[in-house]
Each structure stands twice: as structure tokens, then as C-alpha cells.
TrEMBL record:
<keyword id="KW-0328">Glycosyltransferase</keyword>
<dbReference type="InterPro" id="IPR035595">
    <property type="entry name" value="UDP_glycos_trans_CS"/>
</dbReference>
<dbReference type="GO" id="GO:0016757">
    <property type="term" value="F:glycosyltransferase activity"/>
</dbReference>
<protein>
    <recommendedName>
        <fullName>Glycosyltransferase</fullName>
        <ecNumber>2.4.1.-</ecNumber>
    </recommendedName>
</protein>
<dbReference type="InterPro" id="IPR002213">
    <property type="entry name" value="UDP_glucos_trans"/>
</dbReference>
<comment type="similarity">
    <text>Belongs to the UDP-glycosyltransferase family.</text>
</comment>
<dbReference type="Pfam" id="PF00201">
    <property type="entry name" value="UDPGT"/>
</dbReference>
<keyword id="KW-0808">Transferase</keyword>
């Protein structure tokens, strides 16, 4: 239950405003970070507010108004308008410019209101790339920190792309087996494992937008060297983190997944009746016997792909929990998938679930995933082997890390039509859940990484220490001095 916040003037040493995109993969790690920041200020010296787009805010707090700030008793939540407020993505460059201007104006108003209340924002943190934050920071002279909610390897790839490697990468974009050596990476990376927007030659609007946003972000980073918070831990990506510390003030504060007992934000239908049903179903199965299948909050699957997945699950004859969002089906007629027909003694189908709690259940033996970073890091924390079915963005790099760098899973290979067949899925499931030496090695490595990850987030662990170090470095006007602002504004004007 989240209540309307009673606004009182406070004299906190720090007030962090976290700005997140309106999708679960940004909101949940943003919320966990805000909670951890606040809890470090046990004397009330740290205040955190999570700002999210209007559409997502209304899904979380349907009874709240735009003028209200909600609270969960630990942090506050405040809506920010992009001028459209329907939850859609910008259509083109003009749309992006209009929304940026509206978002900047509304964020600026939020910062001003907090100052008037006696709760001035002392640092703005944005998830990944949210350029209106840079505009507002310049206007109000507030330090900025970047919350990188993908692996450090993705930060390195993006950084080097914009620092001398773009021509090499784009000139080989159509050759997925071509290998590129990047500083900090332990092995050359095949083009097919690069994030999709860097190797997309189709001219898609999404790829162009991400490239433009990233280019401005790294120009800003080069000029002002803001703090960068990484949702990873040192032991997971040691070499690349060491390399990135040459270019950024890096704080490895992950894994930012909370605990399986903490309440989580669900932007999709999820009630206690559903949860009771699937948790009781899991409880009825032996340890490490269930195949959990979920492709996240963004990925959509075609009818053919979903039919192949269902066929593969039936073929391997192991119990499975399959998550299928109704808006996650590409075909207009969702009934074509015959999802109800998959309900049998072996399987259960749900529209949504509390993923971290499911992964933490002893009955789960492997995770068939799209390999978004949140899902990946939740699998690491839970010690569950992964079968990767990546589609786009960072997922292509994450499955490389899972399979080649960490040895905690395998990739499901697509056929010439871009489909992971049922036969291929069943092969992967048997390989991961069987008794072969490779299967046992994957499970042992998953268990070992789980122990390291848990040590990192325990009280007094490395994540807490790095977060305390970050807080100590943030001082008003420390990293965003007027000279720096003037130099950035001049650079932007010249370009």
C-alpha cells in the first residue's frame, strides 16, 4: 500500500532524485537503488525520490493525481510529463526533441518545487541515457550521476564505439563472426554479440535514436566525468571494470535486485490469487525440477515462435512455468497460441509473476530467458542456470557473458528463419538440466556465482561500501561547477 506523502521541510545532507524510464527494467533497479541510498542514511541524512513518466506513475498509483507525491514509507515517487504521457516511444527526431523539451521543463519544475519545500535536490541520477536530466542539471547547477543498469561490458562497448571503434564495427556489421578486440574485454567479441543498435544497418528509428542519445551522453561524460554507478559487482566483470575506471569515476553497486521477500513494482496484472496459485504449484515439485520460461516486459514473440516453445517444453517432459503476457504476442489473435491447451499436469501458464521470488524457489532448475540484464542478474543472484533466447539490444552481449565468460548457461540457436525450434529448446533444456559433465559444471558455476553475489549485497559487503563511497563524493557544486557548465554549453552551441 503506497500512500500520499505528507510533505514536510527537511534538512537532509543529500536528496537524490532518480529519474527512470517508464519500463520495469528501469523502474525496479531504480527503486532498489533509491531504497539502498535512503537506508544508508539511518539518521535521516539521505532522502531519495524516484521520478517516473506519467503513464507508468498512474499504473502504479491509479488514484493519485499529477500534483501528488506518493511514498512507500522509505522513498517518494513523483510523476514527470513528457508532453504526451501515453507511454509510447518517440516516433522520430522531431518527436524526440519535443518530448525532451517537455521533460526538461517538467523536471526543472520538480526540482524547483523540492527547493521551495526545503528539500533541495543535491544530485540527479538517471538510468542509462535520459538527456533531459543533463538539461536540468545545467540549469540548476546540480551534480549528475549515471546509473548504468546494463553490464559493465556494455558500457565498455559503447564507450569504445564512440572513441575510435565505430568505423571498424559498422564496416563489419553484416559479418556476425568477425571478431573485434576492445580494451578491457578478456576475449575478442564477435560482431553478432554486439548490442543490436550498433550493428543495425536497416536505418531503424530506434537504433538511430539510441546512437544519437549515446553520442551526446558520452560527449557529456568526456567533458565533465560524472559518477557512474554500475549494476554489477567486481568479481563478475573484473577486467572490464578495471578498464572503465581509466575513463570514469566508477562505483560497482550491484547486484541491484533487492530480495525475494521485498515488494516489487509490477506494471502488469499481478495479484495475490495468481501468486498463491503458482507458488503452491512450485511447492509441489521436487528441487531443481522446473523449467521457468519468461521473456521479460518488452519482448514479443510470434505465433510460430511461441508454438515452437510450447512444443519444446512438451517434448522434454519436464514441469514448466511459462509466462506469456497478452501484450507480448505479436499476432492479433492471441487465441491462436492455444495457451490454455498447454495447461496440463506438466505445465502452468501465467500472464505475469514475481520473477525474483520464482527464481529463488528451490524447485526451479533452469531459466529460459530473453537475457535482459535484470533477468540475467536475477538468475546470477538466484544461482539458476540460463538458456538464452536473445532478441535485441544488450541481450546479444548478455548471452555471450552467460555462456562464454561465466559458464552459467547456453544459447538457444535460431534457425534460418530466426526461430528457436522446439527441438533446439528441448536439447538445451536437457543439456542444462541433465547429468552430463557440462550440465554439472554449469550448475556448480551458477552456485559459486550466487555465493559471490550474495556476499556483495550482504550488510557490510562491497555493494554497500561502494554506495557509501559514492555518497561521500557527492557535494553540491562539486562536479558540476559553473566553469564546467559554461564549457559544455559552449561545446553544444558550437555543434
Amino acid at each position: 500500500m503506497v500512500d500520499k506523502e505528507e510533505v514536510r521541510p527537511q534538512h537532509n545532507s543529500h536528496h537524490f532524485l532518480l529519474v527512470a524510464y517508464g519500463v520495469q527494467s528501469h523502474i525496479n533497479p531504480g527503486r532498489v537503488l533509491a531504497h539502498r541510498l535512503t537506508r544508508l542514511g539511518i539518521d535521516g541524512s539521505v532522502l531519495a525520490t524516484l521520478s517516473i513518466p506519467v503513464a507508468s506513475y498512474h499504473r502504479m498509483f491509479p488514484d493519485a493525481t499529477m500534483a501528488e507525491t506518493a511514498t512507500d514509507g522509505i522513498i517518494s515517487y513523483i510523476p514527470c510529463s513528457d508532453g504526451v504521457d501515453d507511454g509510447s516511444w518517440p516516433k522520430d527526431a522531431n518527436d524526440r526533441a519535443l518530448r525532451r523539451r517537455a521533460s526538461s521543463e517538467n523536471l526543472s519544475a520538480i526540482v524547483a518545487r523540492f527547493a521551495d519545500r526545503g528539500q533541495p535536490v543535491t544530485c540527479i541520477i538517471c538510468t542509462m541515457i535520459f538527456l533531459p536530466v543533463l538539461d536540468v542539471a545545467r540549469e540548476h547547477n546540480i551534480p549528475v550521476a549515471i546509473y548504468w543498469i546494463q553490464p559493465a561490458t556494455l558500457l565498455a562497448i559503447n564507450y569504445h564505439y564512440f572513441h575510435g571503434y565505430n568505423e571498424l564495427i559498422t564496416s563489419h556489421a553484416t559479418d556476425p563472426t568477425y571478431k573485434v578486440c576492445l580494451p578491457g574485454l578478456s576475449c575478442p567479441l564477435q560482431i553478432g554479440n554486439f548490442p543490436s543498435f550498433l550493428i543495425d544497418m536497416s536505418g531503424s528509428e530506434m537504433s538511430k535514436a539510441i546512437i544519437e542519445l549515446s553520442q551526446e551522453l558520452f560527449k557529456y561524460i568526456d567533458q565533465l566525468r560524472p559518477k557512474v554507478l554500475l549494476n554489477t559487482f567486481d568479481e563478475l566483470e573484473a577486467n572490464v571494470i578495471r578498464e572503465m575506471k581509466k575513463h570514469f569515476d566508477v562505483f560497482t553497486v550491484g547486484p541491484m535486485v533487492g530480495s525475494s521477500t521485498e515488494a516489487r513494482i509490477h506494471l502488469f496484472k499481478h495479484d495475490n490469487v495468481d501468486k498463491k496459485r503458482y507458488m503452491e504449484w512450485l511447492q509441489a515439485h521436487p528441487e531443481k525440477s522446473v523449467v521457468y520460461v519468461s521473456f521479460g516486459s518488452v519482448t514479443k514473440n510470434s505465433k510460430r515462435q511461441m508454438d515452437e516453445i510450447i512444443g519444446g517444453l512438451r517434448q522434454c517432459r519436464r514441469p514448466y512455468l511459462l509466462v506469456v503476457r497478452k501484450d507480448g504476442l505479436e499476432d492479433d489473435d492471441e487465441n491462436n497460441h492455444n495457451l490454455e491447451d498447454t495447461q496440463s499436469q506438466l505445465g502452468m501458464v501465467v500472464e505475469w509473476c514475481d520473477q525474483l521470488e520464482v527464481l529463488s524457489h528451490s524447485a526451479v532448475g533452469c531459466f529460459v530467458s530473453h537475457c535482459g540484464w535484470n533477468s540475467t542478474i536475477e538468475a546470477v543472484v538466484s544461482g539458476v542456470p540460463v538458456i538464452g533466447v536473445p532478441n535485441m539490444l544488450d541481450q546479444l552481449t548478455n548471452i555471450y557473458l552467460i555462456e562464454e565468460e561465466w559458464g552459467i548457461g547456453i544459447k538457444g540457436e535460431r534457425n534460418n528463419d530466426g526461430v528457436v525450434t522446439g527441438t533446439e529448446l528441448a536439447r538445451c533444456i536437457e543439456l542444462v538440466m541433465g547429468e552430463s559433465p557440462k550440465a554439472m559444471a554449469i550448475r556448480e558455476r551458477s552456485k559459486a556465482l550466487k555465493e559471490i553475489a550474495q556476499a556483495s549485497v550482504n550488510a557490510g559487503g562491497s555493494a554497500e561500501k561502494k554506495l557509501r563511497d559514492f555518497i561521500k563524493t557527492i557535494q553540491v557544486n562539486d562536479t558540476f561547477c559553473m566553469d564546467g557548465i559554461m564549457s559544455v554549453n559552449k561545446a553544444i552551441a558550437e555543434n
